[in-house]
Design a protein that fits this description.
This protein is an all-alpha fold. It is 87% helix and 0% strand. The protein is elongated, with a radius of gyration of 29 Å.
């Protein structure tokens, strides 16, 4: 039983690797262009990660301030209603 499962997984892995294979360019200008494109995309991704982090920090600050404001409003409303 285990032998059959191992063979099945091995065949699945082999066919997956063959299906995912692609040909690499052999001329240098194309390779250089692809490398430059990869570098540009990596820089854009890094910038997006930084921007996302900054947005998250701003969102957290706004949420904290909103919570504090709601607490103060609730406290003031209870003091006004208790008079």
């Amino acid at each position: 039983m285990k032998k059959g499962i191992i063979i099945f997984l091995f065949l699945g892995l082999v066919t997956h690797l063959q299906a995912g294979s692609f040909s690499l360019p052999s001329d240098l200008p194309t390779i250089e262009a692809l490398i430059n494109l990869h570098k540009l995309i990596a820089k854009a991704e890094d910038g997006a990660v930084v921007q996302t982090g900054a947005s998250k920090v701003e969102e957290d600050v706004i949420s904290d301030n909103t919570t504090k404001f709601e607490d103060v409003r609730k406290t003031l409303n209870t003091k006004l209603c208790s008079r």
